[in-house]
Design brief:
Blueprint: H1 8-15, E1 42-47, E2 52-57, E3 62-68, E4 73-78, E5 84-89, E6 94-99, E7 104-110, E8 118-120, E9 126-130, E10 134-138, E11 143-148, E12 154-159, E13 166-170, E14 172-179, E15 184-195, E16 200-202, E17 208-213, E18 218-223, E19 228-234, E20 239-244, E21 250-255, E22 260-265, E23 270-276, E24 280-286, E25 293-298, E26 302-306, E27 313-318, E28 323-328, H2 331-337
Antiparallel strand pairs: 1-2, 1-28, 2-3, 4-5, 5-6, 6-7, 8-9, 9-10, 10-11, 12-13, 13-14, 14-15, 16-17, 17-18, 18-19, 20-21, 21-22, 22-23, 24-25, 25-26, 26-27
C-alpha cells in the first residue's frame, strides 16, 4: 500500500524557518552591472515561500534577477543546455516552464498532485517529476507521456551518471529503480531506514548512491551493481542535502536540524569531518567541475557558496523567504549553446501561462 503524505506539513514547518525578507530585485529587474546572461555562469534558487526563482551570478556572487513563478516552487529541473527550467511545487499541482533567456514563465503542465522535485534526462528530452507517481513529461511537446507507480510516494529523483537508470527516493523507506529507456519500474530497494524528505547523490563513477535518511540521522549507501544497501552511516541531525566531490573521495551531507556539514570518506564510508558553518544547510548542489558547493540555509533566507575542499564559506548571498533547491546548467553544454536571443523552436510553440 502506498504511504501517504499525512505528516508532510509538519516536516515542512520544521524544515523551513521564517526570517525577515531581504531586499530583492523586482520581477524582471536586472542588476545595474548587466551581467553575462550565459547560463553557464548562472544558478537558479527556487523560493519555496516567495512565488519566485532567484537568478544568481556565480562570478559576481550576487542575485541579478527574480523570476515570478506561482505555486511557491520547491524544486526544479534545468535542461542540459541551460535554456529551460521545469519547476516542481508543493504549493500547487502545476509544473511551470521557464525560458531562461527571457526569464519568463512560458507554459504550464497540470500534474494533478503537488510535486516535490524534478530532474531532466541527460539528453534533455524528458523531465521526470516526483508527484503521487513519477510523472514523465516530454520536454518538447510539454505533455505527460507516462506515470510510473512506486511503493512510496516519490520525493527526490536522480539519474545515474551514465543515464541508464533513474532512482526515485520515496517518502518512507524505499528507493525505486526505473529504466528510462522504457519508463518502467525495475525494482524497489528497501533501505531499512526512514527518509521522509531525503535527497540522493551518486559518486561520480556511478558505483555507489548515497541517500539521506532525515528521520534516522543516517546516510544509506547503495551498491549500484547489486542494488543493495551496503552501509548506513550516522551523521548529524536531520540530514537533507548531499553532494559528492568531483574526485569521488568525499560525500558532503547537510544536516538541516543543526548547523553542520558531515564529510564522508567514500573509501571507508565513515564520517571523517564535521564542520559547523553557522547556518542550517538545506539543499546542496555541487558544480560540475567540483570547485563550488552551493547550499541554501534554512531559517536565514541565504545562499552559501562553500569551498568543498576546505568547507570554508566563500560568500553568503541574501535571498528571500524559504529558498530551497538550486540548479545549475552543465557548463560544457551551456557555453556552447547559450542563446543570445529568446529560444526559438520548442519554446516558441509553448502555450503562454498567465502568472
Amino acid at each position: 500500500m502506498r504511504r501517504t503524505r499525512s505528516l508532510l506539513a509538519g516536516f515542512l514547518v520544521a524544515a523551513l524557518g521564517i526570517a525577515p525578507l531581504a531586499p530583492v530585485l523586482a520581477s524582471g529587474a536586472q542588476d545595474d552591472a548587466a551581467p553575462d546572461r550565459s547560463p553557464a555562469r548562472l544558478a537558479y534558487a527556487f523560493m519555496d515561500g516567495s512565488n519566485s526563482v532567484a537568478v544568481i551570478d556565480l562570478a559576481a556572487k550576487k542575485v541579478v534577477d527574480r523570476i515570478a513563478v506561482a505555486g511557491n516552487p520547491h524544486g526544479g529541473a534545468i535542461t542540459p543546455d541551460g535554456r529551460t527550467i521545469f519547476t516542481a511545487s508543493m504549493g500547487g499541482e502545476t509544473v511551470r516552464v521557464i525560458d531562461t533567456a527571457t526569464r519568463k514563465v512560458v507554459g504550464s503542465i497540470e500534474i494533478g498532485a503537488i510535486t516535490h522535485h524534478s530532474v531532466a534526462s541527460p539528453d534533455g528530452c524528458y523531465i521526470y517529476v516526483a508527484g503521487d507517481d513519477v510523472v514523465v513529461i516530454d520536454s518538447a511537446a510539454r505533455r505527460i507521456v507516462k506515470r510510473i507507480a512506486t511503493e512510496d510516494t516519490p520525493f527526490y529523483l536522480v539519474f545515474a551518471p551514465d543515464g541508464k537508470r533513474l532512482y526515485a527516493l520515496g517518502m518512507g523507506s524505499t528507493v525505486a529503480v526505473i529504466d528510462p529507456a522504457t519508463n518502467s519500474l525495475l525494482e524497489t530497494i528497501e533501505m531499512d531506514a526512514t527518509s521522509n524528505m531525503g535527497h540522493m547523490a551518486f559518486r561520480p563513477d556511478g558505483k555507489e548512491l548515497y541517500v539521506t535518511n532525515d528521520a534516522d540521522n543516517t546516510v544509506s549507501v547503495i551498491d549500484v551493481a547489486s542494488d543493495k544497501v551496503i552501509a548506513r552511516i550516522p551523521v548529524g541531525k536531520m540530514p537533507h542535502g548531499v553532494a559528492a566531490t568531483a574526485d569521488g573521495r568525499r560525500v558532503i551531507v547537510g544536516n538541516r536540524g543543526a548547523t553542520t556539514l558531515s564529510v564522508i570518506d567514500t573509501a571507508s564510508d565513515k564520517v571523517v569531518t564535521t564542520r559547523d558553518i553557522g547556518l542550517r544547510p538545506q539543499h546542496l548542489t555541487m558544480s560540475r567541475d567540483g570547485v563550488l558547493l552551493l547550499s541554501t540555509a534554512g531559517g536565514s533566507n541565504k545562499l552559501m557558496m562553500v569551498d568543498p575542499q576546505t568547507l570554508a564559506t566563500v560568500a553568503t548571498i541574501d535571498l528571500w523567504k524559504a529558498p530551497h533547491t538550486i540548479v545549475m546548467a552543465d557548463p560544457s553544454v551551456a557555453k556552447a549553446e547559450a542563446p543570445s536571443t529568446p529560444t526559438a523552436g520548442v519554446l516558441a510553440t509553448a502555450t503562454p501561462a498567465s502568472e
